[in-house]
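Quarterly update from the structural biology core.
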Amino acid sequence: MVKKLEHQWRSWWRSLHKNNYFVIKLGVSVLLVGLAFMLIYNRSSDSSAVSTAPFLENTVSADSEENTDQIPSKGKIFLLLHFQSFLPDLSAFGKWLNFFAVYGTESIDSEEKCNLFIGEWVAYKAEPLYTNSSCSFIEDHQNCMKNGRPDTDYLYWRWNPQGCELGQPDPGRFLELMREKRWAFIGDSISRNHVQSFLCVLSTVEMAVEVYHDEEYKSRRWVFPMHNFTVSVIWSPFLTHAAIFEDINGVSTSEIELHLDILDKNWTEQYKSFDYMVLSVGKWFTKPAIYYENNTILGCHNCSNSNFTRLGFNYAYRRAMSNVFGYIIASNHKGMIFYRTSPPDHFEGGEWFSGGTCTRTAPVKEGEFELNELDKILRDIEVEEFEKIVVKASETGVNLKLFDVHPMSVLRPDGHPGPYRFYQPFAKDKNASIISDCLHWCLPGPIDTWNDVLMEMIING
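Predicted structure, tokenized:
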């Protein structure tokens, strides 16, 4: 009976927890604790009721305060409530209360402490699931080992979440769960980096086959034939409609024209067809841009026209996030939608254009790496805008989750290509001045852990 009640309680509580009914959980918890103390108080003044309970005869005497104090308070609640269960007018709620008094607090505490995104990196000697030579999905500028990066210690760390265990990745089981499903990673080049890791991990079980790419290979689609499982990456660096005048090397001939109130059709036209989505943007909002709403210029960020109102990129990012989340809430889509927070870059001593580098070879502890101001602003906006709508998402049945890779990623300044974005950058001159990539991630590397967590959330969440 207790096991059955335990199972029912845990199922009920997790349901509330997953749907973010914080207020309901708090109210129920306060109500249950209050009722428990009422029962203790009432029974302490009713000696005949306590003494007639057969399982209390050799445990506690109603007129012995000393003996009563020897029993832990949770034990008192359990005994009193268990006695209450013999009364004919006891409701089903009383049975829930009975179980809560014994198991509830510890169960809730243990769940609340488990956060897959908060923790530390620990040394781990097992080999990565794949290598730079075994996975064909790695682009040259993320193939750090092929490009000559001399150290490999960055491969041998494992994420250790606070209060819980992150299981070993199980790509075979994940593929079985994904039969007939469709995934999309939607965003900028970090999303492309992410999907490459995703494909590398899963292709240790079954090789993905490319079935589509656009002219510039920015939007692509693959299928795992044996599972009829489709994975897409959709290029949409703002999630809103943008005219971009930039070449492959990031050189612009004009400011970006960004329509904050019009979402990008590259992803919205396919939105309903996906069972799972991971959306994320961020860094592109810091570029010079002119902002539009209702096809009217509102202002700009770092633009050359002195007549335009100066609006910070934070204004545009907040407006875009609000519109994206509003669209998701109103969509009534029944798939699972993750918003991935933007990871920080790790340039030190300058930016990418002014000599910034990332030469560290090991993770750092929390607080040891100072985020730049742009990353702080992006993160604050993402979290604040998500918190505004997460309760409404639950109320409308939209399965929206924050995939918060930022805390774990900030601790890995060692995981970027740096100068090894380029092939053998110091082969001709060991003192060559090379632009470093401290934004994207080596493959294999720390970004693979994003997928460990993602699969954990799907398989055991």
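The first strand starts at residue 115 and ends at 123.
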